[in-house]
Amino acid sequence: MDPAVITLCVLAVAAFLFVTELIPLAVTAMAACTALGILGVLPSKQVYAGLSNSTVVLFGGMFVIGAAMFKTGLAEAIGVAVVKKAGTNQVPLMAAIMLVTIVLSSVSSNTGTVACLMPVIIGICQAAKISPSKELMPLAIAANVGGTITMIGTPPNVIVTGALSAAGLPTFGFFEFAYIGIPLSIIILVYTLFIGRHFIPDKQAGEMDEEAVKAAAEEAGASGDSAPKSKTKMWISGIILLGVVACMALGLKNLPLHTAAVTGAILCVVTGCLKEKEAYAGIDWVTIFLFAGMLSVATAMEKTGAGKMIADAVVSMMG
After folding, report:
1. Are 117 and 213 in contact (CB under 8 A)?
2. Of the candidates 177, 157, 181, 161, which has an alpha carbon nearest to the alpha carbon of residue 169?
3. What is the pLDDT of residue 54?
4. pLDDT tens digits for 180-200?
5. Could you identify which of 99, 108, 226, 273 might form a hypothetical disulfide with 66, taking C-beta atoms 3.0 to 4.6 angstroms apart as the criterion?
6. Is the confidence at residue 88, as pLDDT, over 80?
7. Could you give the C-alpha distances from 249 to 60, 158, 252, in angstroms and in order?
8. CA–CA gap between residue 289 and residue 93 (Å, rounded)
9. If you ran DSSP here, which 8-state letter would residue 131 be given?
10. How distant, in Å, are the alpha carbons of 49, 261, 306 from that of 27?
11. Contacting residues for 185 by C-beta, under 8 A, at least 6 apart
């Protein structure tokens, strides 16, 4: 059978499993590239080459840096300071929540940002007798839109940039996404404050809130104990994050994005902002294996001509 056809068949099965989630997403991705190796479409050296891809390495480094910011309590401290100044009035509180979430999620994990702010917001809502759902939905929306502001704000931005680089085409700059991301964030913020908030369902906090917050925090690597946080480590983690972002924004030739991210991750562990095991726990391994596996599938599509077949078919139909 033609290698291109085999690749498309494997891709179709993977797509079906992604949609149905009959098996975990990361397992599907790694199984797809493994199948292509067994079927002889990919040489053995390229089957798992995605794990060493610079984009995947960048993900790993930024996950650790983000975990350090959450573990030291820096993200929570920023969130608490901003939200408390907004008071308990529903609209100003919503505006403060969305603003701080947009800023934090533009340079760190969306899930981690939401996880560290959820307990604060639920507590304030209960004290002010405001329905938590009225503030938690804007929190989730702001986290999603905030990721569109920078290259590292959300994985798709990094993947597209990496794809352009691999194809030998000009890549997007670090803040180039902000031309769309910032106006989009402003529009979403204004819409939510003046129109969207009227459509948010009124749901009171239930017994599952505490467990849900804990589960989300653990998933994001943002779970921590109630011990006092070190302000010194907060400052160190903040300086490391700003330094890494600055290096990425400047586009230094001797310090590519993935190198800057890994350097920052190493500094987080060396300076004690994170313990070694906490650094490992802070990495979203599902994301790592998911993208690593599918990058190898993408390589197979390019080398076998499967991608060209799809492109030709689309062009013939759409023009």
Report:
1. no
2. 161
3. 86
4. 999 999 999 999 999 999 998
5. 108
6. no
7. 19, 13, 8
8. 38
9. -
10. 16, 26, 23
11. 102, 142, 145, 146, 148, 149
196, amino acid identity:
G
What's the rounded Cα separation, in Å, for the pair 72 and 232? 9
197 closest CA partner among 124, 137, 130: 137
Tell me how far apart the alpha carbons of residues 311 and 154 are, in angstroms, rounded to a whole number: 26
Q: How far is CA 137 from CA 97, 120, 134, 200, 220, in A?
A: 10, 14, 6, 7, 18
* The one-letter amino acid at 5: V
160 band by pLDDT with thresholds 50, 70 and 90: confident
CA distance 3 to 304: 6
Q: Tokens 């701080």 map to which residue? A: 100
* d(C-alpha 242, C-alpha 137), whole Å: 28
CB distance 42 to 7 below 8 Å: no
Cα–Cα distance measured from residue 128 to residue 90, given in angstroms and rounded to the nearest whole number: 9
DSSP 234: H
- CA gap 48, 262 in Å, rounded: 20
φ, ψ (nearest 5 deg) of residue 243: -65, -45
Q: What is the secondary structure of 211-233 as a DSSP string? A: HHHHHHHHHHT----SSPPPHHH
217: pLDDT strictly greater than 60: no
pLDDT of residue 143: 93
Nearest to 291 by CA among 38, 7, 49, 41: 49
